[in-house]
Write the C-alpha cells for this entry.
Amino acid sequence: MNRLSKYPILLFLYSAAALFILSYCKNDKQQPVYEDLGSVKNRIIKTNTDFEKQINELKTLVSKDSGEKLLQQKFQGIRKTYKKMEWAVEYFLPHSARFINGPALPEIEMDEHTEIEPEGLQVLEELLYPYNKSNQEEVIRMLNKLINKSNTIDTNFQVITVSKDQVFDALRQETFRISSLGISGFDTPVSGTFLQEMPSSLQGVKETLEQISTSRSKGKALKSIITEINSAIEFLKKNTDKNTFDYVNFIPDHLNKITALMLDFKNQEEIPDVEVTTALNKNAATFFAKNAFNPNAFTPGKEYAYSEEKAALGHQLFNDKILSNNNNRSCATCHIPEKAFTDGLARSMSLENSKLPRNTPSLNYAGYQHGQFWDMRKDDLEGQSSDVISNKEEMHGDLNIILARINQDKNYQAAFKKIYGSQKTEVWQLQNVLATYIRSLAKFNSGFDEYMRGNKSSMTDSQKRGFNLFVGKAQCAICHFLPLFNGTVPPNFKKTEQEVLGAAMNGENKAFDTDLGRGKFHETVASLQHSFKTPTLRNINKTAPYMHNGGYKTLKDVMIFYNKGGGKGLGFKIENQTLSDAPLQLTEQETDDIIEFLKALDDK
C-alpha cells in the first residue's frame, strides 16, 4: 500500500509521530513498520535517472541511424539498469511495470471487451532484434513512452513512503521472480539475454538488503546472503549460453539457498509480515518447499477457506451420483483419479453418449489458477462445479433439487451443519466443499519437487537434461511457469494466462481447429480468438490424449507440434498466435529427454 505524504505540515507531523514511535519502541523486538526508508528511495530514484538517461541515449543513436549491434548493446544496458530497480517498480507500481517490461501483447480489459496497445521493453526488443530502419519512427515512439513511464517512477518515489516490511516483501518477491520468470527468459523471448541480466537483478536485491540491514543480521544472515548472491552472479558470468545452462542445479544450489536465507534475514531483523493474503505462504523458504502455497488465495472469500473437513465432505460428494439428474453419474465418472482426474478420452462423453466439444482437463492443481475450463469462463472452482452440475449434457442437475436431497440425508445434513453452522445446506456451501476437495488434489511430491528440495537422486540423467531443455532451448517455461507449470504468473500468482497455439484437429497437423476458445465470450477482442487456458503440466504423463480437443494422442505428437512452431509454423493462417512460430530445432534425443522430464512431474 502506498502511503502518500502530500502536504508539508502533514509530512512534518507524520515524521514527528514516527520518531516518537521509534524512540518509544526502541527496546521492542519488532522494527517500526512505518519507518520511511529514504535512502532506499534515493537509490531507486538515482537508478531511474540512469534508466532515463540511457533511454535518451538510445533515442539519439536511433535518430543518427546507428548500426544494429550498437543499438542492441545500448538496449541491453537499459534492461540491466531496469533490472536493478525491478523489485521496487513491480511491487510499488505494478500497473506501470506492466507497461515497462510486460509481454509484447495487448493488455485486455475483460469487462469492457477492449485491448490496450502493448509498449515497453519487450515491444522494443521485437523491434530491435533484428533492427530494420523502416521501424525507426516506431522505435522512437516506444522510447518516448518509456521515458514517460520513467517519469512516473520518479514522481511516485518522490512522494510515497516505503517501509522496511514492504521493502523486504518486495525483495523476497523479486528473488522468486528471478527463480521463475527471470530464469526462463520470460521477458527476453527474442534476444534471449536473460542470463546476462540476472546478475543485475540479484545485485539490486543485495544492495537493498545491505541498506535495510542492522547489526542484528550483518554478521549472520546478511553475510550468508551476500556470499550466496556473489556465488550465483559468478556462476552466471561464467555460463551465458541459455541452451547449455545447468538450470536443474542452479535453482537448488543457488536460488533456493538465497530465498531460504531471506527468511533467516527476516527473522533476525524481526521484520513483521505485510498483512496481505498471498498465494505463497509467508514462511515458505522456497517455491518448492512443502506447503509453500496457500489455497485460500484462490478462493472467492474468507468463508470459502480451506479445511480438511470440507475436503473430506467434498470427496464424498464428488463420488456420489446424487449430484446428477437421474442419479446415474458422479464427478468421478469423468474425472478418474488414476488418470490424474481425466477420463482418457479425446473428448468427454455426454449423458446421451455423444461426444462433447472438448477434452476433459485434469483436476490436479486446478485450485491454483484464475479461470476454470479450457475457455476460462468461470473464475473459480466454486463457479466451475455449478456449471458442470447444471449443464444438461454433463450432469443435467438442478441445484435446488440436489439441495433438497442433501437436506433430507441425515448424514450430509449433519456434516454440513458441523462445518458451516447453518440449519440447512446452501448452494454456496455445496459448491465450496466440492471446490475444496479439488483444491486438496495438489500434492507437490513429484520426483522433480524432491530434486528441488535437495534429493539429487530423485531424477534420472535424462530427466535432468530434459528440464534444462524445457527451460532453455525449448522455452516451455515462458508459458508453463515454474513451479506450478501452468499459466498462473509468478511471483504474485494473481493472473492466469491464455495462449493461442494454433492447434490442429489432431496429431496429423493437416487441418486447423476452429474452436474459438475464450473468443466465444469476447467476440470483439481479436487477441482472444482461438485462445485457451495454459494448463498445468504436472501429471501430464497420465492425462493423454492432449490439447483442448484431445487430438494429440501422445506427448511425442505434442512435441512435434511445438517443435515446428505451432499452427503458424505448420502453415495455418492465424495472425494472433502467441506461441513463437520459429522451429525449436530439437533433436530426437532432446525431444525424448523433455518427455522423460515431464514424467518427473508425476505425483507419487
